[in-house]
Amino acid sequence: MIFKDGLRKAGFFSDNIYQKPLLKMSEFETFEKNCRTKIPEAFRQEIKEYVGLLAPNEDNSKYIGQELG
Question: To the nearest whole number, what is the mean pLDDT of the chain?
Answer without folding.
Answer: 80
